[in-house]
Amino acid sequence: MEITNAQRAEVLVHALPYIKKYNRKIVVVKYGGNAMISPELKNAVMGDIVLLSTVGVRVVLVHGGGPEINDALSKIGKVPQFVDGLRVTDEETMEVVKMVLCGKVNKNLVSLLEEQGGRAVGLCGIDGGMIRASKRNERLGLVGDIMGINAEIIIDVLDKGYIPVIATVGRGSDGTCYNINADTAAEKIAVALGAESLVSMTDISGIMRDKNDPSSLLSRIEVRELPELIKSGVISGGMIPKVECCAEAIEHGVRRVFIIDGRVPHSILIETMTDEGIGTMVCAS
User: Fold this and answer.
1) Rounded CA separation 66/87 (Å)
2) What does the mean pLDDT of the chain come to?
3) Would you state the pLDDT for residue 204?
4) Beta-carbon neighbour count of residue 117 at 10 Å?
5) How far apart are CA 127 and CA 170, in angstroms?
6) Distance between CA atoms of 49 and 116, rounded to whole angstroms?
7) What is the pTM for the complete model shown?
8) What is the DSSP string of 153-185?
9) Strand, coil or helix: what is 280?
10) Can you tell me the distance from the alpha carbon of 237 to that of 245, in angstroms, rounded to the nearest whole number?
């Protein structure tokens, strides 16, 4: 369908209040799932981030890379193992995680952002002591819990007009590197930066009362409602830790968290720049 100039102008007029609201504000985007696999979706996400950056939003991109890590492990004959949704990470797996996340995935995303006309800098949690971590437990191996975030290097990159692209690997006080869950890292980074919003890209439409009924999508949830939604089973399985990260972010000062479907092209723009949105917004009240 051909879009007329009048329709283009109307879109811009409707977006203007949101552009003003987010101007010079920090928005952290947690990028993962199928949106990282499909070339078309990947280009759409990078285009959205460049557009937001161009209109004055200070975007920070925090990414995972599970499928790419699995592919690399399979090439060396190693079968991935998971406990409670977290990758069991021995020393050999940790080397692969660093190579794939901090190398291949991170630099490919930087390249895509540059191709879309953006200015980006690739970082990982080891750089500048950004993500300080400690071992969670022996069962998971080199999986880390975040002990602190040094946001200074991220702010420096933002202040120079670049989009920070962050791979979620952390370092302990003894120099040991740890694999960090990307949802947790995005939440802690958003809090440390005093972000206006955290956008979590997933492979579902958002939080639904009935997971088989898209029309039951909850477009807005207050933090105080989350425990009951978990208790009733509306939020279950792998969504529980994601929602717990949302609650942590809100309780520590992030104004709103969006859970959106990364499989929908331009879902970031639809959620942040329209009245209707597309996913679930979690807020304080």
Assistant:
1) 9
2) 91
3) 84
4) 12
5) 9
6) 9
7) 0.93
8) HHHHHHHTT-EEEEE-EEE-TTS-EEE--HHHH
9) strand
10) 14
